[in-house]
Structures are given as structure tokens and as C-alpha cells.
Amino acid sequence: MEVQEKDELKQLRDRLAVTPKLVWDQVDQAERAAIFAYGEHYKTFLDRAKTEREAVVEIERQAKALGFVDLAGKEIGPRGYYNYRGKNIVLVVQGRRPLTEGLRLVASHIDSPRLDLKQYPLYEDTDLAFLKTHYYGGIKKYQWLARPLAIHGVVIKADGSRVQFSIGEDPHDPVFSVLDLLPHLARKTQMDKKVTDAFEGEKLNVLVGSLPLGDADTKERVKLHLLKYLEDHYGIQEEDLISAELEVVPAGPARDLGWDRSLVGGYGQDDRSCAYAALAALLDLKEPEHTCLALFYDKEEIGSEGNTGARSFLLNEMVEILLERQGESPQARRRVLMASKALSADVTGALDPDFPEVHEKRNAARLGYGVCFHKYGGSGGKYSTSDANAEYVAWIRRIFNEHGVVWQAGELGKVDEGGGGTIAKFLAVYGMEIIDCGTPLLSMHSPFEVASKADLYMTFKAYQAFFKAG
Fold first, then answer.
1. What is the rounded distance in angstroms from the CA atom of residue 233 to the CA atom of residue 236?
2. Which one of 91, 103, 414, 451 is most buried, counting C-beta atoms within 10 A?
3. 13-29 pLDDT, tens per residue?
């Protein structure tokens, strides 16, 4: 075959075929520097937002610093926020077009898998003090054993006063841990069993102390010492733990991963990688065509239930507030939502080279190849998914291509392997166009998830392009 013919065939292939390319091969030095700078800000956000409540505080802090006004108050301005119960927050930038021409919505979630304390958590056994937990979301239970853990959250006392907790993050803080069994004695109890049977949720008990109070005749003196400590340092009693939301999370900061520092390893990247990208994109927005909303939901990891999940009426309330502020009838809410376009900003599992058998390689997201969108999620016949229409997928492709977003399309695992749902289906019922679009992760749902800085930045760039689109 002649050289000219080979060149022509290569040009034909480049023009007609899809050839995935690494982000690093498609950015110049200036954008490469922007990728690494973005990664530093992102790690700071992860460290400040280890729970949904902490994420709301940090998002509100950044918004207020840039002049966003409280939409629950009387202030007027083109940029606002709405804090709902301290566990959801919505940021809004007013557009030039009327609300009835539709919104641009990016909806992420700020909860992550973890261990929650039970209502009567503190107990003593064998002269050791423990906290009972109930795991939250989809976890591999063994990953939470024999590792340093921190406790974050809030205790609300009977008089309504609030006590904040964040123990285990400062280098001078103590940490906590769930014990594991030594391998010498684990054959029958763990190693000969299925993983699902070997590690019981009821045994995810957090070791918190061993120092006794009083003499040998004192009942439960290690527990008593801990109760005395909690009263002395926090002014709380055991009954106060009933009205507490205390979450056990991995201790320590997010870190650069790899000698080349091209990756980020840390807890909570599902879904705070997308939440931070949505925050950064909206804060950077100036006078968009359409009114833009970034919604940060709770409870996605347990099915978006409850009054702070995506199944709640928060979005309805938000749209009615915006209509009233612009002197329009709240009755137009349905028309506004049906004319809207949205991204369900959630992560996806990247192709793991050690476990290729669970992926369908042609349709699996790859680390370092940019933000990934899923036309549909669900599993085994597309159950529990919204399935974006072809017209909307084409519109998304065009927007991303016009703004230089490096993107890929994919699915979460083989057809009958599993899969996962997102908040897309709960927003799709309003009639809006919506598609899943987020960052690929390795070790997803583990205490130490892994993301590419290139993909993190392209997620931000994708949401930025979406908000700016006409």
C-alpha cells in the first residue's frame, strides 16, 4: 500500500471513526497548569466538606463571599442561594431570558457512603468502649476495618442548642477505628466465608476508649469515663446522642496520588467531585442566557429519600420563589420545568484494568479521557433510569465540542453485571431534558476513591459550557 493511500485512509478514519484520546494529549501548557491548579482547590473542598452539612456550609461560604444573597430573605440580586435545612443548598444566577423559556440545572449530591452512629451508640465490652453504627449507602464493609476514622456531625440538645463535632482530622486529634480479626484466627470466621457473610454490619463497631473511671466496683467504668469526658468537653449527656447526626468517615486529607501527582485520592469524591465542579462553574458565571441553578442534594446514596433528597419538593419551592421574585405567577412552575435542560451531575465507575471482566470495554469510561455522560443508567433492562433522548444527547455533544470539553460516553458495567441509579429519574418526571454527566472514578464507594485531575477539570469545564449554552 502506497504512503499516499495510507495517509488518505488515516484521514478517513480520523474523520469518521471515534478514537478516544487522553485529555493530556489534547491540552496545551496553559490548560495543563489550570488542571493542576483546579486540583488544589478541589482537594481543599474535599477536606472541608466531609459530610453533607459541612458541604452546605462551605458552598454557602463561597457563594456569600462573591455577593450571593439569601433567597429566603428580602435582599434582591441576580445571584442568590437557598439553604434548606442545612443539608441542601441551591445556587442561582439569573439569566436574560424569562423563566418560562426554561432553566439550566446541574444537580449533584453531597452525601457519601459512611458509618452513622445509632441512637444509643455508646457501650462497653471487655473493658473497651465502642460506638454502634449503621452503615449508610453502598459500602464494602471490610474496607472500613483497621483504618483511622474521624467523627463529624452535630448534636442537638433538648434545649435546642447545637454542638459541632469534627474529631480526627487535626494531626493532634485522636482517631477511632473498627477492629479486624488477626489472620491467625480468621480462617473459619472470615476466610472460608463469602465476603457478604464474613463481614457483618452489626460488627462495624467503632473503638473509642479504654480508660476506666473509679475502682473495680464501678459499673461500666470505661463507658462512664467516656460519658464524663463528653460532658466535660462538650456539655452533652448520653440522651443527647439520640438527637444527633454523627457520621464516621475516613480520617485525613485528600492527597495527590502518584509520583506525577496526576491523580487525587480521597474520601467522598462520589459525588463531591461533581458538586465542586458545579459550584466552581456557577460561581464563575456572568449574565447567562437562561437562569442557571446548581442544586446540591442529600440522601442520594440511599435512594434520594426523605425531605432533603431529590424526591422532595425542594425544586418546586425553588422555582416558585424565583417566579414570585420576578413578579410572575407561581402557577407557571410546571411550564418552567418542562422547558428546562439539566445535567444529573454524578460520577461513574472507570475501567479497572485488574477487573476488566465486569466492564464492557467499548462502552466503559476510562480514567484520563474526560468527563463522561451516560445516556441511561440502571441495570438488567434499563430499569430505574430516565434514558435521555437522542436529540438531547446530540445537543450535549455540540455544546461540549464547541467549548473544547474533552468528553466520553459510557455505561456502568456490563448489562447484567449491576449498574446504579442517580437522581436523574427523579428530575425527569418534571418533563425536563436530563442526562447523567460526571467524573469517572476508580475504587468508587471506597474510603479512598481515585480521580484523574484531568477528568475533574473537564467536569468543571463541561458544567461551565452547559450553563453558558443558549
1. 8
2. 451
3. 888 888 889 999 999 99
